[in-house]
Design a protein that fits this description.
Length: about 475
């Protein structure tokens, strides 16, 4: 664990969080449950749902996966036509019960709840200012800042409170807010994180991080929540505010590379198709003389399809994934080398023996997992092992809601590609160019935040936030 009590990850980038809200359906809690189930890939530490019938507000949340936190009886105890749910992976704040979301408070008789995906890069400055003015914080999360800002301005009316509060924030935020009778969806002016609106079969509404949540509850996709939009839904209908200064979009390109589910549409394109195009561009940029191409399932599957199609190399599944490895799997003894790799992925020796193999991966962060997997291929008899990555080298920290480690822990920071190849035990290594990656998305270069690749941060984080983040 790190100093905040978070479990150190296995070298893969960690997902941020996912949100799902319902308005205008008598089974709001159950629909939100299914929406969160579809978004489970965005956070596996905790889950929560807050629900309202227009007057009474109820909340249930706990540590664990969505089906571990909620049962049929718990959902039946959450009545109401409006709800907001959250799945979490901690990027700020410790991984414990007090930091689970949605956060809910009651201030002057009004209930406020918030579910947040992203990171506020000026949260320390805002928190210090609020504490000076008498605010008392209950958690270590940046999301709580939003509640305190709203509570201090609610006497001005909801619209003014929302405008005043969100004009103070800097960073990445796709947020669901709830009062006892209103659901509010907010997206930061850069649009770092995805957030979309759908219509339910009964005429109600759903807001979710990804369209895969809409698909599961058979909702019709309407549109993305626009960058900088504050969408208000209540008994009077739907309306939007745009309180923040307009800026160029800063879509997180890692959503397309890794985070979003391949069956989702985000930033105007389908993730599955985009990842296949990444593989096709990879083949154009780097054609390797080999016997076949393979992914490490499931992360490289779609780029591998594209590479195989464009290169003419056959696609094989040289590693088989065990989908039934639970969170409570008994840990092996020290003598069982690379057990954690082998319990998840096992090489197919008859396919690999004596072959020249091209591995397609979506990313390499710390490199620890990659080293073990390459060693497993060698042990299975692979003659040559080449790796192609469907994104550029990740050399910089993220301050916008992805749990990349500090640059000192990034395998690509301060190393050449040849040095990384030797570190991973590869015969060769190639990364997709930034231009090639952007081309695969079908959008323009200036649509994206590319800071993890090129260090160009579209929203400059406060120095105190940078120092705190890099110590994690």
């Amino acid at each position: 664990m790190n100093r905040n009590g978070q479990h150190m990850n296995d070298g893969r980038p960690k997902h941020e969080c996912g949100v799902c809200g319902i308005y205008g359906h008598e089974d709001a809690a159950k629909l939100t449950y299914f929406g969160l189930y579809a978004l489970q890939h965005r956070g596996q530490e905790s889950a929560g749902i807050v629900v309202s019938d227009g007057s009474k507000v109820c909340l249930h949340k706990d540590m664990g996966l969505v089906p571990e936190v909620f049962s049929e009886s718990i959902l039946q105890g959450l009545p109401g036509h409006m709800s907001a749910g959250h799945v979490r992976y901690s990027t700020t704040g410790a991984s414990n019960i007090i930091n689970t979301q949605p956060l809910m408070v009651t201030h002057k008789g009004e209930t406020l709840a918030v579910a947040h995906n992203g990171n506020l890069v000026n949260s320390i400055e805002l928190r210090n200012d609020l504490e000076t003015k008498g605010s008392i914080f209950q958690t270590s999360m940046d999301s709580e800042v939003v509640l305190h800002l709203l509570a201090r301005t609610m006497h001005l009316g909801l619209d003014r409170a929302l405008s005043e509060s969100f004009s103070c924030l800097k960073g990445a935020y796709s947020i669901l807010l709830m009062t006892s009778d209103t659901l509010v969806a907010v997206r930061d002016p850069g649009g770092f994180r995805p957030l979309c609106l759908g219509k339910l079969n009964n005429g109600g509404w759903i807001v979710a991080s990804e369209t895969c949540a809409l698909d599961l509850v058979e909702a019709k996709y309407v549109r993305e929540i626009e960058p900088g939009e504050v969408l208000i839904i209540n008994k009077d209908g739907m309306r939007s505010l745009f309180p923040c200064v307009q800026q160029k979009t800063s879509y997180c390109i890692f959503e397309q590379v890794y985070f979003a589910r391949p069956d989702s549409n985000i930033f105007g394109s389908n993730v599955y198709e985009t990842r296949k195009r990444m593989g096709e561009v990879l083949a154009r940029e780097c054609l390797v003389d080999a016997d076949f191409v393979m992914p490490f399932p499931d992360s490289g599957n779609y780029a591998a399809l594209g590479y195989s199609r464009a290169s003419g190399l056959p696609l094989e599944m040289g590693m088989i994934r065990n989908h039934y490895v639970g969170r409570t799997f008994i840990q092996p003894t020290q003598s069982m080398r690379d057990f954690n790799v082998r319990v998840k992925l096992n090489p197919v020796r008859s396919i690999l023996e004596g072959k020249r193999v091209v591995i397609i991966e979506d990313s390499v962060i710390r490199g620890t997992t990659g080293r073990s997997r390459v060693r497993a291929l060698r042990d299975a008899g692979a003659k040559e092992v080449h790796m192609l990555i469907s994104c550029p080298p990740t050399r910089n920290a993220c301050y916008y809601g992805i749990d990349f480690p500090s640059p000192t822990q990034l395998v690509a920071a301060g190393r050449t590609v040849d040095e990384i190849a030797r570190e991973l035990g590869l015969d060769s290594l190639y990364y997709l160019s930034i231009d090639g990656l952007v081309e695969a998305t079908g959008l323009s270069f200036d649509s994206f935040c590319l800071a993890c690749f090129n260090g160009d941060y579209p929203v400059a984080p406060d120095l105190s936030f940078c120092k705190d983040a890099l110590e994690i």
